[in-house]
Design brief:
This protein is an alpha+beta fold and about 525 residues long. It has 2 domains: about 1-55 and about 385-518, no CATH class; about 55-375, no CATH class. Helices cover about 55% and strands about 10% of the residues. The protein is built from 18 helices and 12 strands. The chain has helices spanning about 10-25, 45-55, 55-80, 85-100, 105-110, 115-130, 145-160, 165-175, 185-215, 250-255, 255-260, 275-295, 305-325, 330-335, 340-350, 350-375, 440-450, 470-485; strands spanning about 5, 380, 390, 400-405, 425, 455-460, 460-465, 465, 490-500, 500, 505, 510-515. The mean pLDDT is about 95. Keywords: Membrane, Transmembrane, Transmembrane helix. This is Glycosyltransferase 87 family protein.
Length: about 525
């Protein structure tokens, strides 16, 4: 048991977004969690409800059980791929490949937390499994087959609607159908049906939120892609977080080696594993051997029918991921299948026994590396009775009070649900792509319209079991400068420090009066 989930995202937006949806906060707040304030909150609602009402350890257990279902689905996929194996291997091989899939670094680092990657992967694996149940019949013009394919698409789309990063794997699952061993017309037919299912699922879980953002801001993915959907409060941007992309063609070609050697190239946490580099080598080994065999007129073994879907899913998913995100933790939905991917391709270039032995060595070494420290935590604190608690100041008129958040890092969005829901929160500094002075004017409009007191919510620091006065003072100075830049004055003499807790971890914050500059 790692402890209470304290990852950066839960401290920024997972609690806030659910709270805002359930309490109508989007109408009175302005980006308290930065640009993430406007992500679809539906996935976060169940987590918010259980952390607010259940003991912390029970929350951790429930999240672990839910995300552990990935093993069940992955085992089902492996069983279908190896349905023709001899009785002795039909159960053992799928079991160990599913175990290896769940011992990959991305999945292990996120197990039990709120970040959503290990949860939306359930939809991807579920869709993969559903389609594979009718893989041998995809060429049939059958209502039952097409309905099954459509259901797979709906399941995939449900995940994409909950977390848009998952749409990468909806694309991979759909395009993978074009590699089915059926006629070109049949391939297009099943890919089209799957795609329609994806759109239906996407509309079911994300449609409401897209429409709400369109109604409020004229942008269904606000504030991203404001270059296409301009808004007066946002600067002209596409995808806001572009720093992870490969910087050159050579880096793109060698990317699995790059992020295997330097995990920080694709994420904030060190995830040490060699499985992606191994998969990349095995894939190109298979491609070269296949081409050489065909050139020589030699026998070229065919991948088992459903196995080609798994290979296509992983390969296409990786390419689209690299082009669209290049953020390592978003790989979970295909990384779970990478051990299976490696084993399948090894059986195409080596004799069966040799392939099994090479795969065993690669996967055992990779799993041991992950278990011995390759999967670093995204942040946990020792368990306490409640997951999130905070002392808050008394507010005589919360319905007229405005609170300005002065820092995007460390994030303070998780504190907003601890206050009355009628208090308005607006952020000064964050990753939100602000268009100034329009953004500044919006904050002043909020303050003026509400007409009540204004406060600043400022990070505090806890070092060595005590308040870090030096860091607190430096943060106050920086916050004062930031507020002045936006036309506000920080009344430093009014500042007080309050305690907040995630598990037993201490997260103090500073609370100060603010006045509008003359």
């Amino acid at each position: 048991m790692q402890g209470a989930d304290a990852n950066w995202d839960v401290r920024n937006y997972h609690l806030y977004n659910a709270f805002a949806l359930l309490h109508g906060k989007i109408a009175i707040d302005l980006a308290p969690a930065g640009m993430q304030s406007y992500f679809n909150p539906l996935l976060d609602v169940p987590y918010y409800l259980i952390v607010m009402h259940l003991p912390a350890m029970l929350v951790g257990f429930a999240m672990g059980v839910l995300q552990g279902l990935n093993f069940v689905l992955l085992l089902g996929v492996c069983r279908l791929v190896f349905a023709d194996l001899p009785e002795q291997e039909r159960y053992r091989t799928p079991f160990w490949l599913a175990v290896a899939g769940c011992l990959t670094a991305n999945f292990m680092s996120g197990i039990g937390n709120s970040m959503g990657d290990n949860t939306t992967s359930l939809f991807c694996l579920g869709a993969l499994l559903i389609v594979m149940t009718v893989w041998s019949r995809l060429g049939e013009v059958s209502a039952r087959v097409l309905l099954t394919v459509a259901i797979g698409g709906v399941i995939s789309g449900l995940g994409a609607g909950l977390k848009l990063t998952t749409v990468v794997y909806s694309v991979a699952l759909c395009m993978g159908l074009l590699f089915a061993p059926i006629s070109p017309v049949a391939r297009l037919r099943v890919a089209f049906v799957f795609g329609v299912g994806v759109l239906l699922g996407l509309a079911a879980t994300g449609g409401y939120w897209f429409l709400e953002l369109w109604r409020l801001y004229g942008n269904p993915v606000y504030p991203q892609y404001s270059a296409i959907f301009p808004s007066p409060l946002t600067s002209s941007v596409g995808v806001v977080d572009t720093k992870w992309f490969p910087g050159s063609l050579w880096e793109a070609l060698l990317f699995p080696f790059v992020f295997s050697i330097n995990p920080h190239r694709v994420g904030q946490v060190e995830l040490h594993q060699a499985i992606w580099a191994a998969a990349y080598v095995v894939f190109w080994w298979w491609v070269v051997v296949t081409l050489l065999r065909r050139r020589k007129g030699a026998f070229v073994p065919e991948l088992p029918s459903s196995a080609r879907y798994v290979v296509a899913y992983v390969a296409i998913g990786y390419l689209v991921w690299m082009k669209v995100f290049s953020i390592q933790r978003y790989l979970v939905s295909i990384e779970l299948c990478v051990p299976l991917f490696i084993y399948l391709l090894l059986t195409q270039v080596l004799a069966q026994r040799a392939a099994r032995n090479v795969a065993r060595v690669l996967l055992v070494l990779s799993s041991i590396g992950v278990l011995l420290g390759g999967a670093h935590s995204w942040g946990h604190e020792p368990w306490a009775k409640k997951m999130f608690v905070a002392d808050v100041p008394q507010l005589p008129t919360p319905q007229t009070t405005t609170v300005l958040l002065t820092a995007g890092d460390p994030p303070l969005g998780w504190l907003v649900p601890m206050f009355p829901d009628t208090v308005a929160f607006a952020t000064i500094r964050s990753a939100f792509p602000q268009a100034r002075p329009a953004y500044d004017n919006k904050i002043h409009d909020i303050v003026r319209t509400r007409g009540g007191p204004v406060y600043a919510l400022i990070p505090g620091y806890w070092t060595g079991g005590r308040e870090d006065v030096a860091k607190d003072s430096a943060e106050l100075a920086e916050s004062g400068q930031a507020l002045a830049d936006y036309g506000f004055l920080l009344e430093t003499g009014s500042c007080r420090t309050f305690q907040a807790h995630i598990g037993k971890g201490v997260y103090p914050y500073q609370w100060c009066r603010v006045a509008r500059a003359p």
